[in-house]
Amino acid sequence: MIRLIVTVTFLSLFVPIAGAARQRTASHASDCTLTIAPRAFSVPAAGGVYTLTVGRSGPCKWTPEPSADWVTVNTISISDGVITFTVSPNSDTTPRATTIDIVGAKVAVTQDAAADPNLLVNGKFDSNINGWSTLFSTGSGNASWSALDAHDSAFSGSALVRSTQGNLGYQLLQCVNVLPNRVYEYGLTSRIARGQDTAGRVILGVYEYDVANCDKIGYNYYATTNLNPPLDAWTPYSSTFTTSDTAKSLYFVVAAGFHHTPPFAINFDDAFFRPRN
User: Fold this and answer.
1) Which of 35, 125, 185, 206 has its CA 20 to 30 A from that of 241?
2) How many CA atoms lie within 13 A of 20 on its CB side?
3) pTM confidence score
């Protein structure tokens, strides 16, 4: 990853009255006043180096105090009123925020999330099952969106796959283009509701093709796993898959099957397929 180094020049210590009014003033003694600019930084996921200016009147002494270990103060020049600090890269797929405290005045630092390496579209099923297909199901059934979420979020949901034919499964799947001779991580979180046929299983499969976009009848290689998670409990599962030297695409498949007494249904959430670092 290339580290982004950006040094930004901000407001000088002598600014028009209108500009000064927008700066935060911190007074920690009757004879000392600090003016701090800017008051907030928006940082990309790659991080970088940034500059903060502090104006003062009176015999001031100040020390910037970051509240998170991913912000590091590099240099402090009280005489010049300049602080430089480094924001580390954010490798998480969620944004983060912190502050730098300068004698009670807070400078906000927010950082973007890292790009999601998940190659599946709509793997979290926030509001629908768009991006997924029911092609090639061997039995009857249906697939729909459910408001039941693996993390009990009111703003997300899961996919509900329901098989209505004994033993035969019903599935959702998605095609992903891949690189040859590459290790990928994949998995999901699944739940089987109480009261269903105990022979039923969550079937997770990867089916490889030597053409792009899975545009071929018949796959070249596959790997499947039959999961039996505890009833009424969201259970995560993950594994790895190494593509062959001719791989160009694959189907990520999840199905409800192996039940003797239909119907049999599963919820699955947080599906992912991503390159392994």
Assistant:
1) 125
2) 12
3) 0.65
